[in-house]
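In response to a reviewer's request, we include the raw inputs and outputs for one of the modeled complexes. The two entities were modeled together in a single run.
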Amino acid sequence: MESLLYLVLAGLMTGAIYALVAIGFTLLWQTSQTINFAQGEFAMLPAFFMLVALNLKLPLWLAILLGVGVSILLLGLAFKRLLVDPMLRHGVLPLAIATMALAIFLKESVKEFYSAEAQRFPSLFPEQKVDVGGAMISIQSIGVFLVAIAAVVALQLFLSRTRTGRSMQAVAQNPTVARILGVPVERMILLTFAINAALVALASALVTPIYLAKFSNGEVLGMAAFVAAIVGGFNQIRGAIAGGFLLGIVDNIAAAYVSTQYRAAIPLLILIVVIMVRPQGLLGRAEERTV
Amino acid sequence: MNTKFLTGVLAAAVLSLGVAAASAQNPPIKLENVAELSGPGATVGTNWKNGIDLAIAEINAKGGILGRKVEVNHADSQSNPGVARSLFQKAIDANPYALLGPGYSGSVKVTASLAEAAGLAQVMGGEAAELTMAGHKNLVRTSFGQQSSMPKIAKYIAEEVKAQAVAVVWVNNDFGKGGRDMITKELAARNVKIVADLSTEAGQADFAADVVKIKNAKADVAFIYLNEEESARILKELHGQNVKIPLIGETTLLGQKVIELAGVAANGVKGHVGLTTDAPVPAVQEFRKRFQAKYNYVPDHNGIKGYLSVYMIKAATEKMGKVDAKALPAALHNITITPDKEPGILMEVTVDEKGDLDRMSFLGEVVDGKQVIKQVLPKLK
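The model returned the following structure tokens for the whole complex.
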């Protein structure tokens, strides 16, 4: 019983990270029809920005802040201006392919300019463990879960309770009407990219102490988050959150009770079933498009 | 003026011709290295490459091999056997004196036949038992094969730890499968029961479920046989889940990189170590200092393996008294290299007719973030 409890709690921790990255998929899709296949690499890269700061002997909290800041500039604003804007006018598919190329570029750059080897990354939380219903859970896991949840809640509050957040939602729902109503659409879209960059940077700081900093980390995270976003509903933030948690828990339980070898296939199986049975995702909204 | 100028030009031309003739007589010895410089095996390949470069720099500084300088070209297999095979063919086409690498057993397995067909020596880092058992005449190890190391670990688990139930965790590649098969056989021969047989994937990041299985297996000991980065990740998870049973492994569980990555989670880990820079051997300690001075980190066993690969070629070539690529594979077999004749070999080593090694080895434990050698196991013969 403790084992199952542990697996569920560990799954929640992993799922919270998946959710943070998956939310980015939905945010970018809703506001600018961007599918960012470099999203996993976006969650890998900030850890290296932070490592550079740590190598300069800066404290961890400052390194994380700097990492988030640099990520917002490069993975948010520069990404939008230099890649998304020029490519999007050619359609969604060229942009998607361009982000795949960007993913390769980012991986190879980290390999070339930092290291191909895994690097240790300090944790924000202590190594001690606490007893939760008979299962020994590390404070690090609990901390990761709580910080990720706090970030998701803060984002939801921002989107629903602030004028800027509501403007962003208006842009996501109907940019033409939003523009007529005086919403600065371009600025809102840019802000969405900045928020996505901040979220992936946070995910990076939370998960890297566990996964170690490595150029290839984005492959696992990106794929898991993409699947989570589709399973939950690509056009709903709450869908991405639900998909993230579902995948985190199912992955752990499948590995323990079904098969370690086929653990990677289970989320894909869920993806296929969801696409066949409920294409809009578990919590997604059916969309109709004129073609 | 014109006469002086012409004389000068002629002298320069004669000198250049002399230098060209001398270098044509003594062209550099070319080595080709194919290693895991990126991908899951980057730790392995980077250490291996740096060890090679250090050995070559030392050898060249002392005049080279039989008066000829040594050069190496490094190629990145990306830890992918398919890429390794194509790069190996490219390396052979460059007409080298010998081939170095790869470090991953799966990559060695798919490249050994190419080296054999080309008649070139392949000095490699793979440890899977089957590599030398397949009968490749040109293959030479730089470390123990699993058929040499696993009996020592099984003996340690059965006789010193006195374990009766063992959880075996292995990585699902040629290295892991080979180790799992050998340890299973050796533990069975000592009546030790395997209560959990857990396969994991190369590059796996999350070990929560695997550790839960280890806990549920009620094993006396967990034998962990993964590559370095995965070793560090599972140690962190074992520490996180408060697993207290002895964690025993081979060199890949106690290596410097694993200790660096796993931090406090590596403390208490025990195992057999074929090569380590913590070995109580002065020559190894000196090597460690030189490596650290050049690369600013402590090498793991792969760094020593890369270093030794070049010195093994040097010793065999000097024994032949000639630079003969086709004769080198035979010269690298049935040879004993001693540090008094070749200091770069660090510890006396004997290579048998299959390319397997006999050398002293160690039982180690990680104490306060450092590998401590608890016992020296002498050379078998």
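As requested, we also summarize the result in words. Chain B touches chain A at residues 37-40, 42-43, 46, 172, 198-201, 203, 205-206, 208-210, 212-213, 215-216, 229, 232-233, 236, 239-242, 257, 260-261, 263-264 (CB under 8 Å). Residues 2-25 of chain B form the longest helix (24 residues).
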